């Protein structure tokens, strides 16, 4: 415990003395356009780190993202994820820091599709083309309910269609651009005041 307090104090003094603007905060996450973590930074890929080598960072994030809290703690895993601010916005669900969620694909059920109909109205004019034919769309000519008798001024409405879809999932991802998330292991210890 004494060692942690000393490390925190040293980190604060070093950060203050260096002008604070030239060093990142410990635990600061940034996106970069290159594909590696520079010295003093680590990938945000959920990796476990030893607490003894990273006490200042452990004091800030603890086991929020995993680890046993005795020997190890985990960094955030942002692979394939979009980072969200914790809390609750107007009309939105509450999110706690470290919470993950979402799915890449969704399979809709009939209960999730808005109520609608697929009406099929036959022309009131007398037909002059038998189905099936190369330009006909009715289907087999054995479906007599779709034809009005010759000389009749009315047609018949068919109530609906057969169920469609195959129950297969579809992707549920907005347009994206993959970049690299890294987290600072060292730097200025952030103050809450």
UniProtKB/TrEMBL annotation:
Alphabetical UniProt keywords: Mitochondrion, Signal
Signal peptide: 1-21
Keyword Mitochondrion annotated: yes
InterPro entries: Phage_tail_collar_dom (IPR011083), Phage_tail_collar_dom_sf (IPR037053)
Keyword check for DNA-binding: no
Membrane-spanning ranges: none
UniProt xrefs under SUPFAM superfamilies: Receptor-binding domain of short tail fibre protein gp12 (SSF88874)
Residues in Phage tail collar domain copies: 27-82
Pfam families named in the record: Collar (PF07484)
Entry protein name: Phage tail collar domain-containing protein
Lineage: Eukaryota, Sar, Rhizaria, Endomyxa, Phytomyxea
């Amino acid at each position: 415990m004494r060692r942690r307090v000393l490390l925190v104090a040293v980190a604060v003094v070093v950060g203050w003395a260096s002008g604070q603007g030239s060093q990142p905060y410990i635990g600061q996450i940034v996106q970069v356009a290159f594909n590696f973590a520079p010295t003093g930074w680590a990938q945000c890929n959920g990796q476990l780190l030893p607490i003894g080598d990273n006490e200042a960072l452990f004091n800030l994030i603890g086991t929020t993202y995993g680890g046993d809290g005795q020997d190890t703690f985990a960094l955030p895993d942002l692979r394939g994820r979009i980072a969200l601010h914790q809390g609750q916005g107007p009309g939105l669900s509450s999110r706690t820091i470290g919470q993950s969620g979402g799915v890449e694909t969704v399979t809709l059920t009939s209960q999730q599709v808005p109520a609608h109909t697929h009406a099929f109205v036959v022309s009131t004019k007398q037909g002059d083309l038998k189905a099936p034919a190369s330009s006909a769309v009715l289907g087999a000519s054995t479906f007599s309910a779709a034809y009005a008798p010759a000389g009749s001024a009315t047609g018949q409405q068919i109530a609906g269609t057969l169920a469609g879809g195959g129950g297969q999932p579809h992707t549920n991802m907005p347009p994206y651009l993959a970049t690299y998330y890294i987290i600072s292991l060292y730097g200025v210890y952030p103050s809450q005041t």
